[in-house]
Amino acid sequence: MTDLEIAQKAQMLPIKEVAKKLNISEDDLDPYGKYKAKLPLLLINPEKMKNSKLVLVTAITPTPAGEGKTTVSIGLTEGLNKIGKKAIAVLREPSLGPVFGIKGGAAGGGYSQVVPMEDINLHFTGDFSAIEKANNLLSAVIDNNIQSKTHSIGIDPRTVVWKRVMDMNDRALRHIVVGLGGSTHGIPREDGFNITPASEIMAILCLSENFSDLKRRIGNIYVGKKFDGTPVFARDLKVVGAMALLLKEAIKPNLVQTLENNPAILHGGPFASIAQGTNTVLATKMGLSLGDYVVTEAGFGADLGAEKFLNIKCVSAGLAPDAVVVVATIRALRHHGGAKKEEYNTPDLQKVKLGIANLEKHIENVQHFGLKAVVAINYFPHDSEEEIAYVKEVCAKKGVEAVVSKGFSEGGKGTEELARAVVAIAESGESHFAPLYSHEASIEDKITTIATKIYGTNKVNYSSKALSQLKQINKLGFDKLPVCIVKTPKSLSDDEKKLARPTDFEVTVREFEFASGAGFVIPILGDTVRMPGLPSVPAAEGMDIDDEGIISGLS
Ligand SMILES: Nc1ncnc2c1ncn2[C@@H]1O[C@H](COP(=O)(O)OP(=O)(O)O)[C@@H](O)[C@H]1O
Ligand SMILES: O=COP(=O)(O)O
Ligand SMILES: [Mg+2]
């Protein structure tokens, strides 16, 4: 059966029954139909959080299909509940970009999924729509102010860096001109769209602790400059309140369930390559308040999602993982060893031996943060015993246990061994989280620290545009902010062709984007863009809905 068919056969509990497992009363629940609900922020309890364990799930450098972080996160949650822990999966909300593009949804797979999968992968509870409206309200107000004869604050249209967003892979919107059509239709200027997960409003939602924090961050959004050279922030346009009220519901985390009816809290966006790619602080703290274990994920490999989860989100929110799961697949190790796509499912110990260096590097990356890791070998049918034994042997030499995870094919039954290994680490007290850099370091030093320690580069180069933007960053006082690096997820380097563990390479910062509202600076490496494009044959071509409303083709 496909992921969708398994999800459509799920025996879901009414969401109020799932909430009851977390001692949430019906009065506190804000149902969105029978199987989804919003959770009020009053459920966050710092006292209760203290005794809960936080497990971060990351991965090796993935193939384009993904190596199963979300699937393993859900499967591990099932397994932890099976061994008696009150575990909650805390995941990100899917973006329609990959849903209609290549990768598909982000509700897990096989017998490790969150449901209702169709709702979650499509409009869910409207959070992305709210984020888009708040983002684009600011864009509309900026252009309205530029146009105004009576209330203009003197914004120089050539300096506006705030972009519009839409949650779709649409390359045609990357570089556009707005305000065409003559004097009553606006002032022409260059603009562009990013995909909604890359919106700074998404990042603000992911890091905010409450409404006043949300509004403070929105107010600090850098828009551009006035003709006199002074900076313009969102607060100067007087719509911070309006933008915040659009997020009235989106700020609340969403409760759904796993196939085995265990609780899952979904909140915040993906894309750790072009954005932060972690879920929200509020959802993580909500999970730690309501359960004993939170299993949470950060996008792509440990060089992206985990690095940002640790250096940005954990530092901002005062969180610290008790254990880290590094998801590896034999097929991805074959890929890093030179296997072509059609060879991914062909056992080849030699290729695994060539590709294993990628896993070793990601284990080292987790250890750079003072954290204890366990490797989850996300089992695929063509994995050979000798390949698995080899991976376990290499991990053991690095002091890390590797456990086969069969959550995709067996649900919680297939992850009990992994669950026990995670509990052993989480309750050992052997993880001592420390971020990689101090916020007092210069922007260049922060980038160099990440690029050398986590990517393995020898040198960071800067384009002339990036060098001039560095001066602007220092002048604006953004140099004390953390960095959220944008780069390809297909390689530890900024060149997607460099697989396994690239050595003796340099990376180049092409330009910067500013997220002074969210509270970080965005160095963009290589040729990565923040509005993806559709593939020549979009997944959308295989989708349909029948007269009874039954969906097909969603993955
Ligand atoms: N063990 C497995 N066997 C077969 N398919 C899997 C397995 N694990 C994950 N998948 C599939 O691979 C895709 C990516 O899984 P996902 O959990 O979304 O990865 P990630 O979160 O790392 O991107 C999904 O379509 C999922 O159904
Ligand atoms: O940000 C990307 O998330 P996945 O790796 O789960 O697709
Ligand atoms: Mg995922």
Backbone structural class? alpha/beta
Point out poorly predicted stretches. none
CATH homologous superfamily name of the largest domain?
P-loop containing nucleotide triphosphate hydrolases
Q: Assembly state here? A: single chain
At CATH level 2, the architecture of the largest domain is 3-Layer(aba) Sandwich
Strands, count = 23
Mean pLDDT over the full residue set: 97
Strand percentage lies at 15-25%
Q: Any idea how many domains?
A: 3
What is the highest CATH level, the class of the largest domain? Alpha Beta
User: For the CA atoms, what is the radius of gyration?
Assistant: 23 Å
Q: Hetero groups bound?
A: adenosine-5'-diphosphate, formyl phosphate, magnesium ion
Pathway: One-carbon metabolism; tetrahydrofolate interconversion
InterPro entries: Formate_THF_ligase, Formate_THF_ligase_CS, P-loop_NTPase
Keywords: ATP-binding, Ligase, Nucleotide-binding, One-carbon metabolism
Protein name: Formate--tetrahydrofolate ligase
3D structure, described in words:
The chain has 555 residues and is of the alpha/beta class. It has 3 domains: 3-123 and 253-428, P-loop containing nucleotide triphosphate hydrolases (Rossmann fold, 3-Layer(aba) Sandwich); 127-247, Domain 2, N(10)-formyltetrahydrofolate synthetase (2-Layer Sandwich); 443-524, Formyltetrahydrofolate synthetase, domain 3 (Roll). Helices cover 35% and strands 17% of the residues. Helix 4 (69-82) crosses helix 17 (416-426), helix 13 (330-336) packs across helix 14 (349-368) and helix 14 packs parallel to helix 15. It is globular. The model has no long low-confidence stretch (mean pLDDT 97). The protein binds adenosine-5'-diphosphate (ADP), formyl phosphate and magnesium ion. The site of magnesium ion has 4 residues, from helix 4. Residues 3, 59, 62, 65-71, 104, 106, 108-110, 378-380, 408, 555 line the site of adenosine-5'-diphosphate.
